[in-house]
Amino acid sequence: MEALVSVILVTYNTRELLARCLEALPAALEGVSYEVWVVDNGSTDDTLAWLQTHHPDVQILSNPGNRGFAAANNQAMARARGRYFLLLNTDTIPLPGALAALVHYLEEHPEIGMAGGGLLNPDGSPQGCAADFPTLWTELLLLTGPIGRWLLGSHFPFHPPAGSPGLVDWVSGACLLVRREVVEAIGGLDEGYFMYGEEVDWCWRARRAGWKVAIVPQARVIHLGSATARRMDGMRRRWLYAGKARFLRRARGPLVAALYRMAVWFTTFLKWLGMTLLGRREQAAAYAEAIRPEGWLRWARIFFTPVAGMLALLLFLSTIYTFPRWADWNQNSRLDLVLALVEQGTFRIDAFVENTGDYAVVGGHYYSDKAPGLAFAAVPVYILLHRGLVHPLAEPLARYLEESAAFRATLNPAGTGVSPWKVRFAIALVILSALVVALPSATIALWLHGLLRQRWGSHPVAWMIPLVYGLGTPAFAYANLFVAHQFVAALLMAAFALAWGIRQGLLGEGWVIPAGFLLAYAAISEYPAVLIAGGIACYIVGRGGDSIRPWARRAMGLAAGGLPPLLLAAWHNAMVFGSPFQLGYAYSALWREVHHQGFFSLRGPSLEALWGITFSPYRGLFFRSPFLLIGFVGLWRMLRDPEWRAEGWLATWAVLSFLAFNASSVMWDGGFAVGPRYLLPMVPFLALAAGFAVPAIARGRAGIGLMVLLGLWSLGMVILESLAGQQFPQDQRFPLVEYVWPRWRAGDIARNWGILLGLRGFSSLLPLGLLWGLGFWRFARPPRRSPAERIEPRVLEGRP
Q: What is the dihedral of CA 108, 112, 113, 119, to 10 degrees?
């Protein structure tokens, strides 16, 4: 028989309380068909093993960590089948027939969307469980303690006990019955509330949607929690105050919320001071914890972990081990603009233009034709370093390189050799590439690891995906080049991490402004990035709330953050090309015919180009990194998961929009390139999606074998092509055979720190191999797992 009621209990190290609650359910729901869902928020008291043994009929969801009351209940509601959802605290004991009475009341009153039970203290006395919506006045009185109860009665802020059902503003979430139609209409609990206040917000949204909320005193439930409510530790006070401030902001406006936060800080500071003077250290510490600045700390703990830091460090050291390619027009054009701005105070690159063909000609002068964002980002770094580091090192390093046989072996015999000017330019290129491109690129590992750890806990996929992304995709080849592809990928992923934190309620809405800045800066650094940036902007704004005001507020925040980069680019374009809306590509001297085909070389999708950037040996992404094909399975899984569906749509848009855009370009092959370099900004999103598929695929030996094969192929192909020779392949239709393998056979390895130290050919890569060996050994060690993570039967690991 189909369940009428889905009972949902969220537990965190409350096994004994959970046992008492489960034992009481059959009598409390007598005559009502029901199912039970238990969501474990990372308990370490063997709750899961106990449930499997003593309650095999219970549906279990297991999270690797404490996701909070709202998020855990939403997980269960997304999967439950009942017509009603009954949210029940584990520290409740429903009396016989109590919950059945609650269900019957809603069955008889279709206008009621939510109803709460009558809560009792352990001694049988009534407990506050229904109240009016908070106002600034009532919350200020609550902060004063007994003064509020003296003015408004002993039951304040709750309603006095009632003898019969009645309508109220909100009811306690300790025992709350809600119709499925209500959840489908207004959504689940707001996950921005970690604990406390989420039921107030939920009832408020239901009331605004036209539903009524009622209290049913006959549904008597003993609630043990209030016995300890008065002795709250610091974190519980913090969650309580944060929840109330969040609701006041939503219901009463940002000014009221700000005034409340100020009052909380002031009154809690006075309480801390009083407890300190009285020598009550425990109470003083609790008050200090309650007002200690937190803000982004919960978000930061997800992404900035020791393992994530080691991943980022490994990728950073791996990418800067080889030097940026010399005589690369793309890099030189951008670096010329940096040198011109810092050393000559002009946008004109007349003094440096001989080293590049990527230039625009306007009024008889030469300018970089590239999007200016990357060069502008490098200007402050070069200002700080050029006089104290770049110039003094040029002459002595030039003499050293002239005497180095290992370095001379990498030079073009027909070239002009080593000169102080070339070395000065190379030093600037190495430093700026490392600090402005390689370092941000390495941070992508932080975002990938954090999101996958949030999804899978300690599963190895959380470190495998960042490593395969960083070393087994063309990102490895471009992470230390002074071109914008990886710089833009890093900006977009950082903005996405901020956006995810905002949607999860871990970051306040003020963080929309820096997210807008990152998105706009990505767009002025590589113009096609506007496709993904627009998707992330929609992802941020798309969960603004149930009215137009939150949407508008977030949109205005994005606009405020994005305005400075856009004005900077507009100023550059106006000064150089005569209009804020003119781009350098319109004035490219050597590429004018190409850029004038279609719209800036865009002519609509081509099957030849699509094949070329996907599977062809020439530039195919999946020929080089077939591991990324798993990402398409991951996209499908993300779209099926209600908790990651929004992220799935965003990743799908990023991947498909960039594939379509680059398949429409006349210049899809990218000249000298390792793979389809123009696709790089979307690759982290495909790698993230792959992380959602790997655990499912690798459940058996065949799946593990497939993962290993695809991973080794991706690592081998990318590393071989990235390290071969002093330039990337250009026109070879099968670079692996026609360029890469001959370079390796000849010992022609990309210039690197080993060569600078006197090592030749393959031996110059020994330090890099040692670094990789240590890194893989560190990450491949089996992690220590909690008992909850070792249990597999009947347990869903967080989300399917």
A: -90
